[in-house]
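Crash report, auto-generated. Payload:
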Amino acid sequence: MSGAEPQATPLLSIRGLRVDFATDAGSVPAVRGVDLDIGISETVALVGESGCGKSVTAMSVMRLLTGRISAGSIRFGNTELQSLSEPEMRRIRGAQIGMVFQEPMTSLNPVLTIGKQIEEVLTLHQRLTSSAARAHAVELLKRVGIPSAERRASQYPHELSGGMKQRVMIAMAISCRPKLLIADEPTTALDVTIQAQIMDLLGSLQQELGMAVLLITHDLGVVAHFAERVAVMYAGKIVEQGAVRDIFKRAAHPYTRALLAALPDPLRTAARLEAIPGRVPLPRMLPAGCAFCARCKHVFEPCPGVLPELFPIAPGHSAACFLHDPRRAPSNVPCQ
Amino acid sequence: MRKSPLQLALQRVLRNRMAIGGASLLIAITLSCVLLPPLLGLDPNHTQPSLRNEAPSARFIFGTDTLGRDVFARVLVGGRTSLLVGIAATAVSILVGVTYGAVAGFYGGKVDEAMMRLVDFLYGLPYMFLVILIMLMFSETARGDALPVFLALGLVQWLTMARIVRGQVLTLRHQEFVLAAELIGASDARILLRHVLPNVLGIVVVYGTLMVPSVIILESFLSFLGLGVALSWGQLVADGIAVVNPIRSYWWILVWPSLFLGATLLSLNFVGDGLRDALDPKART
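Recovered output after restart:
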């Protein structure tokens, strides 16, 4: 398969994932055939704009979707997650795969102290006495950088700031030393200085615990600092994936290039920001071919009618664009 | 220093004078009903044909009724029944209503649809009709017994509780913290009991407090119609009404039970309102 595969068996391996949501207007595809591998201790960023299917992909891994997985496989280690019973899946959630998401303000139960909420994860997955769970919870709060952790453990969520709450969520997610942490836009709701602190914390925890991280974000700045590998999603498909270096220096898909061009450049403050013309097609009205073709400057004959596969560009770097079809005359490939 | 949201709410209730006044009066009435009859050796059914329709005096502070029974004793013992019916029927309806509403709201979709249609159907039936029907089912075996009254009233009152809880659970179900609980591998039962229901507790307490008086009223009404428990405030009021006539009004037979009934209902409403204000998220200061 495409993408970088330095390891023999990846920790998480998603193949041909398709997710549909039933609506009044019929079934709407949210994810249309995603292949993604995450190696042990690897950090993979899944980027794309709102509604492209990033979070749906993540929730499919957790099997907590309101939509339906219509095709594809999700293997975690040697286990096919979709074949597990619900109690078996519960033993994986929180223990093997942790998840942090966007909204720390509402992610904690308002009527339980934060200590109690961390203890809950611990007692669900480990045999611990309540005093041991308490001690461990305080330990975790210290680890995620919450000052006076003992006092904080007996506080209620409304007594904590947003950044603190996100730290608590991270403490809960890592409490059972998961092999994989899914961070779904962990910093979107936080202000910029706190964002940097939270990303630093995630980075150091990853190093310390050796866990793999699937970082879902639309912030390319975060991606550049944090991830090893990047997968770019557009309208329910991965359109390009490769090492961070490749994506930022040698982006191959016109969508990725347009995204990078749209980043503000601090050295050219006077220039107007580039924008991608047009808008994301509605999931119900996708063309038969490349979903980006209506907004792409390089569009040519096969684009609207034929779905491009991921064409290899370099080892571990591929893009779903006919510009990189090896059967095409190489002279036509525009260089950045 | 560390206060849970419920403790904070309690603190606000304690600052509410109406609620505290209501609660004190309620406790006073309850304690008198429970403790005074055995302490003073009062017998509500002891008839004294020579002392019929006595006006309040030092000996009979509330007077006596048409059979020469002590109205004071009857009001206190009747109060036991009324309060017990109110609390027990409310407990039944909370138990049934919260369970039913929580399950419907939590699972949503078709389960919710089916369960709530049943509630709508029962709502559509006149509740008095239902109560009377249930009471008649027990009429041969247990006339005047309190248990069928608890059941009948509880089984009618749970409908509103189920609707309220279902609505709350439906919104809580899609809160991020419930998703977070799913993400740490908690089971449905655990999420419902530990994460969802504690968040509904406030509203259940408030509605429960306001339900007690409405159940007491209902029971009084049933007693008034002759379907209730033998000796309750409703029954006493009915007796009192019966003896009022333009020539001689034995007012004490009617006024005392009515006064106790009214005071209890008013106090319960004050307490309920106080709790509601305290637990209202918009009233947070």
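Post-recovery validation: Chain B has one domain: 16-42+73-278.
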